[in-house]
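Structure in, sequence out. Go:
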């Protein structure tokens, strides 16, 4: 028959499945074909909105500057190629999973390392928010009637991702592999079909928005000089969203099967090649189909913006390629795109917990982030990431256009600092390396990282300048807050550690032990506490009660004599009916009179089987224990007495801890229940 604790564990087991033993951690390591969808779904999915973001800013001036789109797209393709080459050096040099954070800590110092960590933590949260909101946009493109439920859909999708990720890395990889590969196949088929039709059917691939004119935004009708340069750079910065997620592979090297570094580097190369091909193809098809996409749908002259939402760029290309928005090909592309955008958040759900674990190990984040859950994943990191992402989705109404303005500031900050850190790394290695072939490899790697650092630093400057007013200031403000929080956590842990270093005082034996047994009435818990206290053979043993009612105190004295307890009962008077204060004063008096004397307070307590029983018992002892623990030289010993309701429950006879409880450091009900 299932116990109460079994029933309490049922929802958890339904969501997570059976717990996994620690010695099976190696079985959760990923082969390349599963690592690609897990760690590369974010950069691959950015194909769905990177072209769109370029068009949004170019169309602010109407159609005058759309001819710049292929040139900007070419720059965006070159940049990921350089970044991928740069990160291949990182995964070989630092395979422990710290990524840019580890590179910065070891080559620039703590300050730069924490800047990178704060940037990445913010970026991971935004990855979830942007990916899920963009996926929601594509769902709404296929089913416009769902537009009013945008936020609820996005939040529900985050919840689904949390449940999948809590089941374990390998399980989530299997879940995400099919949608990711389906997306790649659908986009490549769409590009191929569109190009064939465009080349051999006299250019009949025409987007539904091709016939609309665009009303320029006020102030953008005549953009020239420096304003034009700023305008173009802003469009380029938006297209750089295609680079997001590249760093996740460098942070996730420990999750790969051996040889870890080589498999991670291969996955990086595959991801870079596939993403660049798809981005170039989608951009080409958008230009050939004459797609128009604007930030405000009402800027499309003649478009019924009051009645229907604007379809995404990839939705318009799919409709033009496959013969309309009611074709099977259109729905397949939209389904695959929506799925991969939603699942792209999985890159963050793997990167954020891994980075949080490294930071916790270095004492910059709470130690709970280094704890693995039942499925050998960092459950606390997953839940923390989901909480912040949901907050962003609610605050910004799951609007991908608003959220994307805050995006990529963090990722380019980590890119830049990490790449210059790698240059320092190679400089240091070259000072000690004498073998010519090895020096040649190091010099080549240094050049790659220097080029990567230069390009990403320039892009970071462009992004900060062009996106600051649009929302990037929020990220720039959040990063110092996280930085200072991590410094404060580290100072706390360091201060605690310094206080716990063994010294002569810690080894000094107390001059004597004074045991104090708290007595509320003469019953089995009290008699057990007295017996245990006597078994410890203290130098002094005091049975202590507090008189808050004369009649009750007299009855207690009579019971004490009737049971012939061979120990005098000390009664403390309490004219104001307090229990805690007289006991504290009594213990303090002992410590004052003999500072080297150890006081051990025995607290009888009931162990109950139902949460509501805790409300009916033991509240006095809970307050006493809370106050006594702050007194130096005082130990508190709980003496539990199991009531019938606790038998067979967790911590009782026939029960036992549930899987993971001891790992998480949970306290049992017996430890929480108070005396009296």
């Amino acid at each position: 028959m299932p116990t109460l604790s079994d029933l309490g564990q049922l929802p958890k087991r339904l969501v997570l499945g059976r717990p996994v033993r620690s010695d099976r951690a190696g079985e959760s390591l990923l082969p390349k074909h599963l690592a690609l969808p897990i760690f590369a779904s974010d950069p691959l999915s950015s194909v769905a909105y990177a072209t769109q973001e370029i068009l949004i800013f170019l169309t602010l001036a109407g159609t005058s500057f759309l001819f710049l789109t292929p040139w900007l797209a070419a720059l965006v393709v070159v940049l990921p190629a350089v970044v991928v080459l740069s990160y291949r050096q990182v995964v070989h040099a630092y395979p422990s999973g710290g990524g840019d954070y580890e590179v910065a800590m070891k080559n620039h110092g703590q300050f730069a390392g924490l800047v990178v960590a704060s940037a990445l933590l913010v970026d991971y949260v935004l990855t979830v928010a942007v990916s899920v909101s963009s996926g929601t946009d594509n769902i709404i493109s296929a089913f416009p009637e769902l537009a009013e439920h945008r936020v609820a859909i996005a939040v529900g999708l985050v919840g689904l991702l949390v449940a999948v990720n809590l089941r374990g890395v390998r399980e989530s990889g299997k879940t995400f592999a099919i949608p990711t590969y389906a997306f790649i196949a659908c986009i490549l088929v769409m590009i191929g079909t569109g190009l064939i039709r465009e080349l051999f059917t006299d250019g009949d691939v025409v987007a539904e928005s091709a016939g609309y004119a665009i009303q320029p935004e006020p102030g953008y009708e005549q953009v020239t000089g420096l304003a034009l340069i700023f305008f173009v750079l802003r469009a380029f910065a938006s297209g750089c969203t295609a680079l997001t997620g590249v760093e996740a592979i460098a942070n996730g090297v420990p999750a790969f099967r051996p040889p870890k570094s080589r498999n991670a580097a291969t996955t990086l190369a595959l991801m870079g090649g596939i993403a660049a091909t798809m981005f170039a193809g989608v951009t080409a098809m958008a230009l050939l189909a004459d797609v128009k996409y604007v930030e405000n749908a009402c800027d499309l002259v003649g478009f019924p913006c009051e009645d229907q939402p604007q379809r995404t760029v990839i939705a318009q290309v799919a409709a033009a390629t496959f013969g309309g928005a009611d074709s099977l090909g259109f729905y397949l592309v939209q389904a695959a795109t929506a799925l991969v955008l939603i699942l792209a958040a999985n890159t963050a759900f793997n990167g954020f917990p891994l980075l949080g674990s490294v930071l916790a190990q270095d004492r910059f984040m709470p130690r709970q982030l280094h704890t693995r859950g039942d499925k050998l994943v960092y459950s606390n990191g997953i839940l923390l990431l989901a909480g912040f992402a949901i907050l962003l989705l609610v605050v910004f109404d799951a609007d991908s256009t608003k959220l994307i303005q805050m995006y990529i500031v963090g990722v380019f900050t980590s890119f830049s600092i990490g790449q210059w850190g790698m240059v320092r790394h190679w400089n240091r290695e070259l000072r000690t390396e004498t073998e010519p072939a090895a020096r040649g490899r190091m010099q080549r790697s240094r050049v790659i990282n220097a080029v990567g650092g230069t390009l990403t630093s320039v892009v970071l400057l462009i992004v900060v300048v062009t996106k600051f007013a649009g929302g990037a200031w929020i990220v720039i403000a959040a990063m110092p807050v996280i930085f200072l929080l991590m410094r404060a956590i580290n100072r706390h842990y360091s201060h605690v550690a310094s206080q716990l270093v063994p010294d002569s005082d810690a080894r000094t034996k107390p001059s004597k032990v004074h045991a104090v047994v708290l007595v509320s009435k003469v019953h089995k818990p009290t008699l057990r506490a007295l017996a245990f206290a006597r078994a410890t053979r203290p130098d002094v043993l005091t049975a202590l009660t507090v008189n808050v009612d004369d009649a009750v105190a007299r009855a207690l004295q009579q019971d004490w004599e009737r049971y012939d307890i061979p120990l005098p009962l000390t009664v403390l008077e309490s004219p104001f009916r307090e229990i805690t204060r007289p006991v504290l004063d009594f213990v303090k008096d002992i410590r004052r009179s003999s500072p080297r004397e150890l006081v051990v307070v025995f607290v009888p307590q009931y162990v109950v089987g139902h949460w509501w029983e805790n409300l009916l018992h033991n509240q006095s002892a809970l307050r006493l224990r809370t106050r006594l623990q702050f007194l130096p030289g005082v130990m508190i010993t709980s003496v539990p007495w199991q009531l019938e309701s606790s038998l067979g429950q967790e911590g009782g006879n026939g029960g036992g801890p549930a899987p993971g409880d001891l790992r998480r450091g949970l306290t049992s009900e017996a430890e929480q229940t108070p005396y009296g």
